[in-house]
Design brief:
Bound molecules: zinc ion
Oligomer: single chain
Number of strands: 2
Largest sheet: 2 strands, antiparallel
Distance between the termini: 50 Å
Shape: elongated
Structural class: mainly alpha
Length: about 120
């Protein structure tokens, strides 16, 4: 069973989350939205030629599995982004999924054979 939270309760909970060193309610929602969008895109990744979902550049190898498997979600990203994620892990800092190109854009471009 769940109940509806009032905006004031959500705001208070969000502030408590931030004070405890966690993401705010809005940031959690943005991450969940990004993760959902990434999850919807992942099955299409091997069917066409796409830009990197993380950086948005046309830097993906045509063979999907030759790219880097993201450390943040079950999806392939370009080698450069794979290296960036490895460095983020080394330094203990993560770029939020909401900052990924696929999460920021309403429309995700349809791949074709001429752009890579
Ligand atoms: Zn990339």
């Amino acid at each position: 069973m769940s109940r509806d939270w009032t905006p004031e309760e959500i705001q208070a909970a969000s502030e408590a989350m931030v004070q405890a060193g966690n993401m705010s309610y809005e940031e959690v929602c943005a991450e969940l939205n990004a993760l959902e969008k990434i999850g919807r895109f992942a099955p299409l990744q091997s069917k066409y030629n796409w830009p990197c979902p993380r950086c948005g550049h046309w830097t993906m190898d045509r063979s999907t599995t030759r790219n880097a498997l993201s450390r943040r979600a079950v999806i392939y990203i370009c080698s450069s982004c794979g290296m960036e994620e490895a460095m983020e892990d080394f330094y203990g800092t993560w770029a939020p999924l909401a900052s990924w190109d696929i999460a920021r854009k309403e429309e995700w471009p349809i791949g074709n054979d001429t752009e890579n």
